[in-house]
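FORM 12-B: Structure-to-Sequence Request
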């Protein structure tokens, strides 16, 4: 009785390693299928590379300049002789207090409430600014209202500060100037004595 036909079985060793049992016909089919896959993959890679080259070649570019400027440091100094916000000497006409106002100007004007009598010449401080030419600056106070301390810790008066300008433009030499005034509030039955305090101005480029 003849033996049924069986295809020849053998082991094939591939150059890249590994051992597969199967027919030579099977190996040829595998080799053909994978060769097509490799060729297809290579074709796709070439197409993608070509697309990249085309994209690079069609890109548009533009340029812009860049710059920066360092401004002169701002300095603020108080003029000698015009360095005190001085409301003068004040007397209460009775037990009722009031206010004393000084305009923010080189030659100040003082206004006293009818309940008060103001004597002695007042004065206002004048500040000079130095910085970069023709630049705008903003003026302000560290505290817009300050406290004057009297003979004892309980004796105080408040001053609401004002400025001749809140902003100005430095001249061609980088200079500017401004004055500070304010309104002093005198309490009812305010204790006699000398009251003192300090103010601080702030100048920034704007």
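FORM 12-B RESPONSE
SEQUENCE OUT:
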């Amino acid at each position: 009785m003849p033996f049924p036909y069986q295809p020849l079985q053998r082991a094939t060793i591939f150059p890249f390693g590994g051992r597969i049992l199967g027919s030579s016909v099977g190996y040829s089919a595998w080799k053909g299928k994978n060769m097509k896959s490799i060729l297809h993959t290579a074709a796709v890679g070439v197409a993608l590379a070509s697309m990249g080259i085309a994209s690079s070649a069609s890109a548009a570019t533009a340029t812009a300049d860049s710059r920066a400027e360092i401004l002169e440091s701002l300095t603020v100094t108080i003029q000698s002789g015009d360095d005190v916000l001085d409301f003068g000497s004040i007397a209460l006409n009775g037990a009722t207090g009031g206010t004393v106002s000084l305009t923010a100007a080189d030659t100040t004007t003082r206004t006293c409430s009818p309940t008060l009598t103001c004597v002695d010449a007042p004065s206002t401080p004048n500040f000079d600014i130095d910085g970069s030419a023709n630049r705008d600056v903003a003026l302000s106070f560290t505290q817009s209202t300050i406290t004057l301390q009297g003979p004892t810790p309980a004796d105080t008066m408040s001053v609401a500060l004002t400025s001749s300008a809140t902003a100005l433009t430095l001249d061609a030499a980088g200079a500017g100037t401004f004055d500070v005034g304010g309104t002093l509030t005198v309490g009812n039955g305010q204790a006699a004595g000398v009251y003192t305090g300090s103010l601080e101005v702030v100048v920034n480029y704007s």
